[in-house]
Amino acid sequence: MAALRIAACQLNPTVGDIEGNVDSIVEQLHAQAAAGAQLVVFGELAISGYPPEDLLLKRAFTDACDGGLARVVAATRQHPGLVAVLGACEQVDALRRYNTAVFCRDGAIVARHRKRLLPNYAVFDEHRWFDEGDVAVPVVDVQGVRVAAVVCEDVWFKEGPVAEAANGGADLVVVVNGSPYVRGRLDDRVEICAARVREAGVPMVYVNQVGGQDELIFDGGSFALQADGSLAALGPQMVEYSTVIDFEDGQLRGDVAPRLSALDEVYDALVLATRDYVDKNGFNEVAVSLSGGIDSSLVSAIAVDALGADRVHVVALPSRYSSAGSVEDAEKLARNFGIDFSVIPIEPAHAAFLEMFVPHFEGRPPDLAEENLQSRIRGVVMMALSNKLGWAPILTCGNKSESAVGYSTLYGDTAGGFAVIRDVPKLLVYALARRRNERAGYDAIPAAVLEKAPSAELRPDQRDDQSLPPYEVLDPILEMYVEEDASVADIVAAGFDDATVRRVVQLVDRSEYKRRQTPLGPRITDKAFGRDRRVPITNRFTG
Asked: Are 133 and 140 in contact (CB under 8 A)?
């Protein structure tokens, strides 16, 4: 069998930036050809970016994608014999559209594989946009090596296109992917693909894209597997990179990049998501309402790591109930990270609102209305700064635990443009903050922030555990109910108090209307609120 040099190019496309995406593809094509690659592989829907969603329903968009593909095809003419494989939308006619892997060589398309297995679960809705492929998996001779290509979901099920490719005589299967990140997903991919190659007896090169796209994060981590399922090469996570893999005598050889730890993987994913959301949408400087608490401290750290301190502004907005320590902690964090820091006390606005409501609230004891006024004043202040100074988006700081049970104020702390830790449970927030300090080598996030009891500081001596179960209890209940779809009975059977479980479940169900009105944020768990978990607001089912 002939030898073959492969370049697995995990790029960071922007959905809809067809010209920019094609520029990146062509640049890599030329660079990898110059470095001796004979087969250059890119990701799923590399021309359009993934997922383009309902842009695919616009004929002008798919026509533009066709034009972009033509540019890539033409570029192969400059490198005789080289084959490029990439994902593209194939619009056959007004009614038929396919998610296709395209083989390009010598200025022509020499083969296409139409994605056979279309995911329609979790964040995926591919049956809305594509038809299922209905032709045999093509096998293309590349420098004497018989190569087949399949697309993402095609590898996730037994007796599918990978087995068909092997039965068709393929020596090697390449997989073009747009596989979104969640915690531990790289291990899942390797395990699934290892099962496929062992079943089929054929090695595999798996190429994923990288980058943030609205809620979705793509983590790269492209890899190669021998026919026995063992790892032959691994690209880095969370960065653009081209992994060079040599194939000779049925064996793959390449470098294996160091794996990120579980915490570093999540942290770097949040950094990537924040950077790409800001940059790809043309924003410049962002702002955070920095309370001195753990959530806003972590969001500020992520923002600096994503964008640089010169593009981040933090604002302390103390009220009559804010402790002096909270403002001091906020100022210390800003100093540690070199961030622009402002203090705007909200007492004048708060006092004015309370005075205005005296005739309307007379005879009623203070309650949630007065507490939420403070949060909403802060939201108004932050949005005014955003409008006047161009600090956009405002990065909101609610975590998944709070979002789940509605422990937030609509039009207050939820006011903003990107919810960085929306899918991060509270206990993981603490773990990520501690890990960020470990990476820094000192307490960049002040130790006091990690040690004090969490509090919204909207009334005297307030603590979160006065309104909610301890997070050590709350987070496992939420994981079972939200991510695992466990029933109340299931959760109680796992050892949790019945009354506590029922209260938490009721809070989750009643808070759906709030979650629908909050900013989007990056997805890092198996079931994030939003695309992953679609439940009705008007709903009387309990349990």
From this structure: no
- As a whole number of angstroms, the distance between CA 286 and CA 304 comes to 10
Question: How many CA atoms within 13 Å lie on the side-chain side of 236?
Answer: 10
Q: What φ, ψ does residue 372 adopt, rounded to 5°?
A: -70, -25
Active site residues: 44, 115, 152
For 47, 208, 220, the CA distances from 19, given in Å and listed in that order, are: 8, 20, 22
Angle subtended at Cα 533 by Cα 411 and Cα 468, rounded to the nearest 5 degrees:
55
Mapped onto helix, strand or coil, the DSSP state of residue 233 is strand
Residues above pLDDT 90, as percent of the chain = 92
Model pLDDT, residue 421 = 99
In a domain, 126, yes or no: yes
Give the pLDDT band of residue 1 (cuts 50, 70, 90). low
Assess whether 168 and 283 both reside in one domain.
no
Sign of the Cα pseudo-torsion (373, 375, 381, 384, in order):
negative
pLDDT tens-digit readout, 334-366: 999 999 999 999 999 999 999 999 999 999 999
User: Number of folded domains in the chain?
Assistant: 2
As a whole number, mean pLDDT of residues 360-383 equals 95
Place of tokens 């979002």: 403
Question: Within 10 Å of residue 528's Cβ, how many Cβ atoms?
Answer: 24
The per-residue pLDDT for range 170-180, each reduced to its tens digit, is: 999 999 999 99
How far is it, in rounded angstroms, from Cα 250 to Cα 2?
9
CATH number at residue 41: 3.60.110.10
Task: Say whether pLDDT at 501 is over 80.
Answer: yes
Domain span including residue 198 = 4-250
- Indicate whether 238 belongs to any domain: yes
SS3 (DSSP) at 397: coil
Pairing of β 216-219 and β 210-213: antiparallel
Indicate the burial class of 95 (C-beta count within 10 angstroms; 0-12, 13-18, 19 or more): exposed
> CA 272 to CA 274: how far, in whole Å?
6
Helix (H, G, I), strand (E, B) or coil at 108: strand
Per-residue pLDDT reduced to its tens digit, 391-408: 999 999 999 999 999 999
The C-alpha atoms of residue 415 and residue 278 are separated, in whole angstroms, by 17
Q: Which residues contact 53 (CB under 8 A, 6 or more apart)?
A: 15, 125, 129
Residue 471 structure tokens: 């997070």
Same domain, 171 and 282: no
Tokens of 373: 């006024």
Residue 375 near residue 398, CB atoms below 8 Å: no
Global confidence as pTM: 0.96
Q: Is residue 530 part of a domain?
A: no
Residue count of the chain: 543
Instruction: Please tell me the distance from the alpha carbon of residue 516 to that of residue 529, in angstroms, as a whole number.
Output: 9
